[in-house]
Design a protein that fits this description.
By secondary structure, the chain is an alpha/beta fold. It has 2 domains: about 300 residues, Zn peptidases (Aminopeptidase), CATH 3.40.630; about 140 residues, Aminopeptidase i, Domain 2 (Roll), CATH 2.30.250.10. About 30% of the residues lie in helices and about 25% in strands. It contains 13 helices and 23 strands. The strands form 5 sheets. A 9-stranded mixed sheet has the order 1-2-3-14-4-15-21-17-19, with helices on both faces. The chain has a 7-stranded antiparallel sheet with strand order 8-7-11-5-6-10-9. Strands 12-13-23 form a 3-stranded antiparallel sheet. Strand 5 and strand 6 form a beta hairpin. Helix 8 packs across helix 13. The chain is globular and about 90 Å long. Bound molecules: manganese (II) ion (2 copies). The site of one manganese (II) ion has 6 residues, from helix 8. One manganese (II) ion (MN) binds next to loops.
Length: about 475
């Protein structure tokens, strides 16, 4: 012991042994800053290229192909060491590597979602009013509507034309592109709006995209609308009727940027849940001939309840496992019973500006690593996968052995609200599942914030989980 270091009292020693103390990533892993910052440069690139589930699917498949992943189709033979991806309709992807050990020992699964809250165009969106052309939207996912006014918006998606050819649309991401915009009322005339509660201040039918103001000519009625349709026709070959078979989403046009002079935080659209999807991808792409069979799922439609054939409730999930098992001559039931899953989704970071919504001892603190949520849901733990203590114990040991910075968390105070993830749709398939994810500030806002250190620990966590004994 160095000379001037005071001998610890019995109480201090006992405290060290018995009392839990949450530590920051800076205390636990003081030498990782360089790796963390480098990792997050690539994460920011991913964010800018993966704003919708379609963009995220295409971008991650391109990354996987470079690492030797091959497209999987139902009925295909699979073999140990080979890497595959299953592209579910361009909106959800399953990456997997067949391990060297018997698949009946179980698959190590992780599931994140790649859809984020946004404004979807309606089937008949275009109209003209007050000398302007607008496009009507129907919001997707849980948004605070007032947050979507007066910000730059870009349009992403597809239009399937009358001849059934599909055209891709990304408009508003290039610096030279025009943008879209939802109007708000000026404070000078906001007396009526101020009197409303926050949830009613902007209504769903006011989320209309400002899309032009110049007429095609001075004679034709609705010439501003006509001019907008003309420009869309020139650019995409589409007519007004083609909106009926389009999937166009207005998303924030802002790029991912560092926050704070120390650059420790990232603001971006869609951290929920690209901040877990990206670490899943980098983790599975980093593996070479793993012992366990591993699968990384990027699900769609989580923000609207996981329904539909690209959501986590789809039978495609079990069908893929069944198909692999059939190809290997193994029992799907045994494989599922022995499989384990991290439901990789974000949690709420404790926010001192809204301290009243949180119970601080059980909240995720920024920079204290990823949040493990034994249960989510609302009220008296309704509508949740409540992971067993034994399974949480198993994950806890995996994380600790690998030096992952992690903490446990609930979403907020009891009865303050709640939320769900895909966890329950996986655990009901007889698979041990627990929620793990990056804490987010201003979740579901058009521009959300996370810590770079927490993002990096998500990558470490998934690698540790995939390679655990
Ligand atoms: Mn989420
Ligand atoms: Mn969400």
């Amino acid at each position: 012991m160095p000379k001037n270091e005071k001998k610890k009292s019995e109480g201090e020693l006992l405290k060290e042994k018995l009392v839990y103390k949450k530590k920051t990533a800076f205390e636990k892993c003081p030498d990782e800053k360089e790796a963390v910052f480098a990792y997050c440069e690539d994460y920011k690139k991913f964010l800018d290229n993966a704003k919708t589930e379609r963009d995220a699917s295409a971008y991650s498949i391109a990354l996987a192909k470079k690492k030797g992943f091959k497209e999987y189709k139902f009925g295909k033979k699979v073999k140990a060491g080979e890497k595959y991806y299953y592209n579910n309709r361009g909106k959800s992807v399953y990456f997997f590597i067949i391990g060297s050990e018997d698949i009946e020992k179980g698959i190590a699964l992780t599931a994140a979602h790649i859809d984020s809250p946004r404004l979807d165009l309606k089937a008949h969106p275009v109209y003209e009013a007050g000398g302007m052309a607008f496009m009507k939207t129907h919001y997707y996912g849980g948004i605070k509507k007032y947050q979507w006014t007066a910000i730059p918006l870009a349009l992403h998606g597809t239009v399937t034309l009358a001849d059934s050819k599909t055209v891709d649309v990304i408009l508003g991401e290039d610096e030279s592109d025009p943008l879209f915009y939802v109007n708000d009322i000026l404070p000078h005339l906001a007396r009526d709006q101020y009197a409303k509660n926050l949830g009613a201040a902007i209504e769903g039918e006011q989320l209309n995209l400002l899309s032009g103001s110049m007429p095609f000519d001075n004679e034709t009625p609705e010439a501003i609308k006509l001019n907008l349709l003309r420009l869309l026709n020139e650019k995409y070959g589409m007519t007004e009727a083609d909106f009926q078979s389009a999937e166009l989403c207005a998303v924030p046009a802002m790029k991912a940027r560092d926050i704070g002079l120390d650059r420790s935080l990232i603001a971006a659209y869609g951290h929920d849940d690209k901040v877990c999807a990206y670490p899943e991808i980098t983790a599975i792409l980093s593996l070479n001939k793993p012992k366990k069979t591993v699968m990384s799922i990027l699900a769609d439609k989580e923000e609207t309840g996981s329904d539909g054939n690209t959501g986590m409730k789809t039978s495609a999930f079990c069908d893929i496992i069944a198909d692999i098992c059939e190809a290997l001559g193994k029992s799907e039931r045994i494989v599922r019973a022995n499989s384990v899953c991290l439901s990789a989704d974000v949690s709420a970071a404790y926010d001192p500006n809204f301290a009243g919504a949180y119970e601080i001892n059980n909240s995720a603190i920024i920079n204290c690593g990823i949040a493990l949520c034994k249960y989510t849901g609302g009220g008296g733990k309704s509508s949740t996968n409540d992971a067993s203590g034994e399974y949480v114990g198993r994950i806890r040991k995996i994380f600790d052995d690998a030096g992952v910075v992690w903490q446990t968390a609930e979403l907020g105070k009891v009865d303050q609200g709640g939320g769900g993830t895909v966890a329950k749709f996986i655990s009901e398939k007889n698979i041990d599942t627990v929620d793990v994810g990056v804490p987010v500030i201003s979740m579901h806002a058009p521009y959300e914030v996370v810590s770079k250190f927490d993002v990096y620990n998500m990558h470490k966590a998934v690698v540790a989980f995939y390679t655990a004994k």
